[in-house]
Amino acid sequence: MDAESAVVSPLPGALQARLAAARAAARALRRLDVATRRAVLHDAARRLVEQGGAVLAENAADLAAHDALGESGRGPAFRDRLLLDAARLGRMGEGLRQVAAMDDPVGEVVEARTLANGLRLRRVRSPLGVILLIFESRPDVAVEAFSLAFMAGNALVLRGGRESMHTTAALYRLLGEALAAHRVPDGALLGITDPDRGLTRALLADDRSIDVVVPRGGPGLIEFVVEHARMPVIKNDRGLCHVYVHDDADLAMAVSIVDNAKTQRPGVCNAMETLLVHRAVAARLLPALHERISGPARAAPVRWFADGEVRAALPGRPHVEPATEGSFDTEYLDLALSARVVPDLSAAIDHIERHGSRHSECIVTASDEAARRFQEEVDAACVYRNASTRFTDGFSLGLGGELGISTQKLHVRGPVGLQALTSVRWVFDGDGQCR
Amino acid sequence: MDAESAVVSPLPGALQARLAAARAAARALRRLDVATRRAVLHDAARRLVEQGGAVLAENAADLAAHDALGESGRGPAFRDRLLLDAARLGRMGEGLRQVAAMDDPVGEVVEARTLANGLRLRRVRSPLGVILLIFESRPDVAVEAFSLAFMAGNALVLRGGRESMHTTAALYRLLGEALAAHRVPDGALLGITDPDRGLTRALLADDRSIDVVVPRGGPGLIEFVVEHARMPVIKNDRGLCHVYVHDDADLAMAVSIVDNAKTQRPGVCNAMETLLVHRAVAARLLPALHERISGPARAAPVRWFADGEVRAALPGRPHVEPATEGSFDTEYLDLALSARVVPDLSAAIDHIERHGSRHSECIVTASDEAARRFQEEVDAACVYRNASTRFTDGFSLGLGGELGISTQKLHVRGPVGLQALTSVRWVFDGDGQCR
Q1: Which residue of B has its CA nearest to A433?
Q2: What is the per-residue pLDDT for A271?
Q3: Whether the predicted pLDDT of B4 surpasses 50
Q4: Which one of A161, B224, B327, B425 has the fewest CB atoms closer than 10 angstroms to its CB?
């Protein structure tokens, strides 16, 4: 933080007016019936089909702008995240319909009781209000976020990356039409496509208009939001996930789980980054595992950054390098892993306590006692016994999608689904009770 | 915020070591059995009786330091908050025993189900970790906060006002002895009595050591914490609470509720500040209400800051002044209120939406429909029908005390009790499931 960044420019008047409209819409949404909310989502899904060509044309403009950058562009992985096609549009529509089919979280009575003085109280699930989502360049995030925020009765402010500006503008128009068709105030969705970066800082200062901010992107974005947001943040931080193989593990199962957690989709936050192996099984497990994920049968072998004991168990094997000081704090998001031998369960838990990001952690063991200790003592959003860390996502867990994976401890841990976009109020009915 | 305040001094080495001890203690507390947690709280309650004289002697030192300031001191209300006596020590001990008697929140299974792939999942309530409470000068807050944080399995860092430094130091020693007697790591309670104000800023930057911060004090403290904290904040902001009297209200009940909400303890955040009256009942309600709370029978009459219609209903009455532009945004915390006539329920809700602080709001009405609309549309932590707003506190609602009243929407709204000091993790048991 420096002196310059401490100066927050005011929001332009037009944006202030739209934020006021978002607040007014949030108030209207609190009492919008669930049938209308579901109808809007189905309507948006239908428009995605009908207007798919127009959306893809705008997407082509974004892709062309990216491609025009040539070598100074952000690379093929980035381009792939930007890209929409008929299949991806289809999945977006399917997502809208899935969220529309979920139970309505609004109005759920979480607890009801009567106090000794006769006061009847209910704790009632209610919308959060106005949610700001700041995301990078995957345009499908806009639709998924809208579906969840709207189904939970919230107004949503979307601030996407400039690289997908044309695509998101088309999606905002389409969603706006779906809202208008059901006479929902258009403040329910405020899509900001103005590329001025100062706007983000000004939005983060406006805790009168915005109740919660959710940043979704790389470490630079997260850091910026944590530094500057005045409203509460639902933080989706990095996933430095571990698999620990205990001395009594079914080793074939361990090989499958590590393979899946590391290689099935290495670029996502719930992929494994570090392997911890109990000393007693290192010599048996490691060669078989290396054969599976780094052997000649693999077109794309996994690179190992391994401590001395791991390397000793893999003499002469390719793709194995010494771990450095920073290896165990590295989120590769790639076909690479760190590996270390540990003397016992406690050392594994210690390692995770020191290096983990509190996202998803796994123990492979046949012992109920070891699993119980690991599950109790490891401080992470999701703790697995004998299953891949890859299940940490809103669809896998039946939440109908997610706004991200929370690695903080307040409000929500793990996938941020529909319920996490609500809060619980106290509602009282009395007969004149006083203290 | 200015450039100078952007420079965060590093924490002194000794404090860094104690924060590391707090983190280690938090890990040990995750698996500390509830019987030991309860025993520590009972032990502390016993020590409060046995060592009460020593605590009161230290409190006398704080009071003497305050009194020595004479006219430049912070006044009698402040002195009263600083003061401990045998009765207050007794209530602190009673509070410890009440929290010890509560159900253990740690380990509670909030949800359990099996996914289609056979993966069994449980959502399990778990401690937050290390909580930082920053409070002003009421020393009993230290004991209440410790009881709740510890019972929920958390380590607690306490940073109190310098005016109660001797008293809190004595209480920290006493609580530390109770922990030591049951072999709980002393990092479970870190009481900071060093008066250096820069420490607070450095603590707020240390989101590696501290999971959550709870500020408890005036607007200046809250603003400082919201501005500088890198970790999530549970915000206990001001209470600008309204009572709205609808056109069909039982007027005798309305008088009782307004009297209680305004005068029973005006200095607390759940007291009423603004009265809204439906036009149809203004002429009947207001004279009777004025007689009750501002009439000659009252030794300490309530002052009114009233709009023209209210004043018209109270011709010639004493203690009635015109409301100014700022009246309806004023938290008096005193025997004063703002009053306004509104044409209907919608106008009352609009007023609360614009001026309320999302704390506690009340409607007095005989109509289920009006109550339902008010309870659905008013966006506050606690919404009452026909009962005083004074019930918004942890003891009244059976939470065994509270760390404050949250007016934000994330994590917890209303009284911050035992459950709000936990988070919910996902725990999975599989048989080798992969994606």
Answers
A1: B387
A2: 97
A3: no
A4: B224
